[in-house]
Specification:
By secondary structure, the protein is an alpha+beta fold. Helices cover 27% and strands 25% of the residues. It has a 5-stranded mixed beta sheet with strand order 2-1-3-4-5.
């Protein structure tokens, strides 16, 4: 799957965001090695901490369906009712989930800036010295 198509799926997922408190909507599209794509949106909660990020929503959907290997994720986010303005990188917790299931040398994070220009990072670039399963061996 082309990165642009993955970004388009992330934009679609963003429309489902439940963000009544922050009014900041995020969508993600996760590409599994199998070729399947899992989308996610951010889901807020009045108690704040029970909320979930778009990226983790996509990962948890995929994992609950038996996927364990992933190649890329596209993420877009911005204020409700507006086009995203700038890149929306994953938070630290989402980066840690990525580290659990992805090879930091190969897994790509695809972001889109306000000019619709695509920026791609490897997980190792946005989570240097990440702690993962290999650290426990």
């Amino acid at each position: 799957m082309k990165k642009q198509a993955l970004l388009e799926l992330a934009h679609q997922a963003r429309t489902y965001a439940y963000a009544p408190y922050s009014h900041f909507q995020v969508g993600a599209a996760l590409l599994a090695k199998s070729g399947n794509v899992y989308t996610g949106c951010n889901i807020e909660n009045a108690a704040y901490t029970p909320g979930n990020c778009a990226e983790r929503t996509a990962f948890f959907k995929a994992i609950s369906e038996g996927e364990r290997e992933f190649t890329a994720i596209a993420i877009v986010g911005g204020p409700e009712g507006k086009q995203p303005d700038g890149i929306c990188p994953p938070c630290g917790v989402c980066r840690q989930v990525m580290m659990e299931f992805c090879d930091p040398e190969l897994f790509e994070i695809v972001l889109e800036d306000s000019g619709k220009e695509m920026r791609t990072f490897l997980l190792k670039e946005i989570l240097p010295y990440g702690f993962g399963p290999d650290n426990l061996i």
